[in-house]
Amino acid sequence: MMLEAHGLTIPARLHDVTAQLGRGRVTAICGPNGAGKSTLLSALTGLIAPVSGTVTLTAQPLDQIPADERARRIGYLPQTAHVAWNLSVRTLVGLGRLPHRTSALEDARVIDEAMATMQLGDFADRRIATLSGGERARALLARVLATQPQWILADEPLAALDLAHQRSLVISLRQLAQEGAGVVLVVHDLALAMNTADHVVVLDKGRVAALGAPQKALSEQVIAKVWGMTARWLGERGHQALAL
Ligand SMILES: Nc1ncnc2c1ncn2[C@@H]1O[C@H](COP(=O)(O)OP(=O)(O)OP(=O)(O)O)[C@@H](O)[C@H]1O
Predict the structure, then answer these.
(1) Which of 94, 121, 224, 239 is the most buried (most CB within 10 A)?
(2) Can you list the domains of the chain with their CATH numbers?
(3) 24-53 pLDDT, tens per residue?
(4) How far apart are CA 79 and CA 21, in angstroms?
């Protein structure tokens, strides 16, 4: 039930990165710009191959898992919100069903559910090009949810969202983790990572700088070393804020 990176190396991007990600929990990948977060996430989906090292899913090398099965098991939300075709929201979300061969009725039920989770009910017939950045981000995430993957790997899924939609997405992602999904998020907001994640991987210049429970991996010492900032955690656990 693990998605594991073993000694991943991609020259100038990742250096000997080893990390174990578990299902049933939310993992945050944090680090400064250029630290290798997006590279690690796409290597974990199998989209880019390391020069050395391997990624395994439940102990099986990712490159030995057929592409359609991989697409069913791992849902990936890239950082860019570019959509090549000006589809309706419902059609876009429906693309998430492509790796499955289920009935139209079942597909429709799952698509409705994914759109409801992302509060897209009113947008079903709208064209993607007419949406705001945050609405588009929610539609792309609904497409990932429509796949019902065991793993959700999302690169900055909260960046374009307003406060209320951030909150509701965090609750949905935590709920999915509770139901057994492995949720892996690239997150810049360290307070969000501290309050939301069960496990944090901190990257710095392509290497793992810290790893573990958020209190440990995002300690004031780690923040000083990796981000070069003097910062102090305030507030109670689960509701912490970072004072700079
Ligand atoms: N396609 C590529 N070819 C070569 N180098 C790349 C490529 N994509 C990214 N890089 C470099 O690899 C390093 C890691 O990039 P990556 O996008 O993984 O960082 P990141 O931590 O996600 O950054 P950010 O917070 O800015 O999104 C950076 O130095 C970047 O310039």
Answers:
(1) 94
(2) 2-243 (3.40.50.300)
(3) 999 999 999 999 999 999 999 999 999 999
(4) 20
